[in-house]
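Reading a protein record of the kind used here takes only a little practice. To see the layout at work, look at the sequence and tokens printed below.
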Amino acid sequence: MTDHSHQVDFQAAAYLYKWPSLNNSRREDRAPYMVVNGTLDHCIRNFMSKPEKTRHLYEIRTRSQPPLVPDVLSPEHVIELSRLREFL
């Protein structure tokens, strides 16, 4: 029997945002801007295609899917979902 409480809808609407930066650091005095409008899967793939040293400048926003997916995914969370995607 499959536990559906831990499944993630990778086809859910999602948005990849980038924070403005200075010297590769987030500008907290500026708002992030959207760079991709698509599915959670598409945004994760786009995020993973970014250079590793700039990933901290990005976040994904989507509808919350407790307990695994919050409404704003940090870079660390996106990387973990990318790894788990094949198993969920």
User: Anything to note?
Assistant: DSSP finds two helices and six strands in the chain. The radius of gyration is 13 Å. Strands lie at 13-18, 21-22, 25-26, 33-39, 58-62, 72-73. The chain has a mean pLDDT of 92.
